Amino acid sequence: MAHASLVTTISPLVNFICSSPDLNLSGANQLLASLLQGFIEHGHSAEWVITSHEGNGDSGWLNASGLKLINLPRTPLNAVRDRQQHLIDRLNQASPCLYFPNFDFDMMWAIPAFPVNCRSVFIFHSDDPVYYQAVKDHGKNLDAIVCVSAYLASKLQRLWPQWKDRIHHIPFGVTIPLAEIEPARSTSADGLLEVVYCGRLAHEQKLIGDLADIILKCHERNLPIQFHIAGTGPDETEFFQKIAAPLSTGSAIRHGLVSNENVQILLRRSHIFILTSAYEGLPVSLLEAMAAGCVPVVTRVASGIPEVITHGTNGFIFPIHDTAAMVEQLAMLAENREEVVATAHAAKKRIAEGNYTRTASVSDYLVLCETLTHQKNTPRKYNRAVLPPNYRLTNRLKSLFNRLS
Question: Which residue from 32, 48, 298, 360 has the fewest beta carbons nearer than 10 Å?
């Protein structure tokens, strides 16, 4: 989608409502927060509904200026119908509205019961089977499916050509640091090469075991490299035990959960951004790092990354699990700071000139939403909320049987 430079045409009567199971720090939630705040800056109303059965979320990282956060009432875990109805009631109050279900797969089963003047926009965040299943289950009821990479948009159009007109490509958009904010990173040729990882500490998808191997190999070779690890996750204990030696010498530093403001500071002081994922959509952390002048050293996942990075020009891409090649690249960059500076400049230029800015992203979404407000509602099959499969008795019995077996 070609972005418009300025969009102010959407009626102020249209509200933007989104939901997600939690408010935890993630790329999907970062995108949504930025997007909703962009809508507010254009004079529209926006609110975020948290739909977990606990009715809460960790919003400490979120700059929620002007953004209304709503926690649904606490319910028993299996009372998903009650949570669906709470959301439906809120949409009825807010209609006409545009609804964004942000990886809120339980609530998507309620879309058939939504008000007729509510348009549903699903953001396809990742090349993860759960997102494809969501489109398979709900594509017939969605008014728009927005993919964060051209790869994902093309793949969905091939898989479901009947919904081709509903599938759009709008990449993430990030803020370019102000020119007057000088990078805090060292430019000394004999100083440490600062390498940062910002993300979830999990083996699944993120392959942090590979990241640990890279850190250990650099440590064993006594390379002038210091790793900064920002984030938490289900496998962090095992991860940090594995890199205990680099941690003890200071060649790796554990930062824990870091606010977005402090992430930006960490990116501006680092030379390299590293990512070892098996799959992605379009990593927000990668775009933020490039915008801050970090050189990406990342894996060649199918979605997103090859659209942003040209190997050897504005970053470096390697086959998944090729930790040896990534270590060699880091060693070379540690010895060649001129290449680091040149590649960092090209990385920042790619974000600024490649439609990956927040301004471009918000503008594209507003153009899409303006179109949706003037088109007929997508016909719905049931006109009632549907119980998600995981909560259906037959599936619950099957799951219990499998556990007992």
Answer: 360
Residues 332 and 389 in one domain: no
Cα–Cα distance for residue pair 368/358, rounded to 1 Å: 15
79 lies in the same domain as 137 = yes
Q: Is the same domain home to 19 and 166?
A: yes
> Residue 402 contacts by C-beta under 8 Å, 6 or more apart in sequence?
none
CA dihedral over 150, 45, 372, 382, signed as positive or negative: positive
What amino acid occupies position 295? V
- The enclosing domain of 107 has a CATH number of 3.40.50.2000
Q: What is the pLDDT along the chain (405 residues), one digit of tens a residue?
A: 544 444 445 555 578 999 999 888 788 888 898 899 899 888 888 999 999 877 566 666 676 566 788 888 777 777 888 899 999 999 999 989 999 999 999 999 999 999 988 999 999 999 999 999 999 999 999 999 999 999 999 999 999 999 999 999 999 999 887 654 556 666 666 689 999 999 999 999 999 999 999 999 999 999 999 999 999 999 999 999 999 999 999 999 999 988 778 888 999 999 999 999 999 999 999 999 999 999 999 999 999 999 999 999 999 999 999 999 999 999 999 999 999 999 999 999 999 888 899 999 999 999 999 999 887 766 665 578 888 888 876 655 555 555 555
Query: Up-side HSE of residue 284: CA atoms within 13 Å toward CB?
Result: 23
203 phi and psi, to 5 degrees?
A: -70, -45
